[in-house]
Specification:
Layout (H helix, E strand, L loop, with lengths): L7 H16 L8 E5 L5 H9 L4 E4 L2 H8 L9 E4 L8 H7 L2 E5 L2 H14 L4 E5 L13 H13 L7 E3 L9 H13 L4 E3 L6 H6 L4 E4 L1 H4 L4
Parallel strand pairs: 1-2, 1-8, 2-3, 3-4, 4-5, 5-6, 6-7
The chain binds pyridoxal-5'-phosphate.
The site of pyridoxal-5'-phosphate has 14 residues, from strand 8 and helix 9.
Length: 222
């Protein structure tokens, strides 16, 4: 079943973000909505774009390029890469994404640093932390985060602006959000990408500066 061609879900999420921010004593503008358009039909995306949303999240480089090719006419579009990045896609990722949220290993830091130099283009970077230390999940484990952040800055000359996490399914997300915040604070990073459809209001309470929301905005993925 495809999503209805309205921006109803989008409007609701925008209102919920504003309310959650206000409840946490923060400005609504302090939280950026990254509308996760992965696996969505264009009919679901179009009304959201028409409603003014310009920041979109995608988890695969090739799928994103296919979906967004020629759509830059909307102007001011920023794509966030929120899925694992293979080094052989670093070139396309640096060329087409405004933000890469999934930096999690030195080999990738090197590939990104090389592309930044070659292309003269610098996407904003987030380091993904595997707060639940799940074997199947990408991200640096918490115990190695400080050293990895230092290496990204030192050895690779990159300037990450924040951290990103995906808490384990079926666990309260709050402690994971709190841990991510703690790691960011002690490393002088100001941005926190955390919170999805099921928990973005909790994430805002814990200090999220951006939330990645897909199904609540667009409807269930096909
Ligand atoms: C798919 C995805 C989201 C959005 O998930 P929803 O539950 O649909 O909001 C957020 N973050 C990441 C990393 C994702 O892969």
């Amino acid at each position: 079943m495809s999503a209805a061609p309205t921006a109803q879900g989008y409007d609701d999420v925008v209102a919920r973000i504003a309310r959650a921010a206000q409840a946490a004593g923060r400005l609504a503008g302090a939280v950026t909505l990254v509308a996760v358009s992965k696996q969505q039909p264009w009919e679901a995306i179009e009304p959201v774009l028409a409603a003014g949303q310009r920041v979109f999240g995608e988890n695969r480089v090739q799928e994103a390029l296919a979906r967004w090719a020629g759509k830059t006419a909307a102007g001011g579009l920023t794509l966030h890469l929120i899925g694992p990045l293979q080094t052989n896609k670093a070139k396309d990722a640096v060329a087409h994404f405004g933000v890469i949220e999934t930096l999690d290993r030195e080999k990738l830091a090197r590939a990104l640093a090389d592309e930044v130099q070659k292309q003269g283009r610098t996407p904003r970077l987030y380091i993904q932390v595997n707060t639940g230390e799940e074997a199947q999940k990408a991200g640096v484990i918490p115990a190695e985060a400080d050293a990895f952040i230092a290496a990204v800055r030192g050895a690779y000359g990159l300037t990450p602006e924040g951290l990103m996490c995906i808490p384990p399914a079926g666990e309260p997300a709050g402690p994971h959000f709190a841990l991510l915040r703690k790691i960011a604070e002690r490393n002088g990073l100001s941005k926190l990408s955390m919170g999805m459809s099921g928990d973005f209001e909790t994430a805002i309470r814990f200090g999220a500066t951006s939330v990645r929301v897909g199904s609540a905005v667009f409807g269930a993925r096909g």
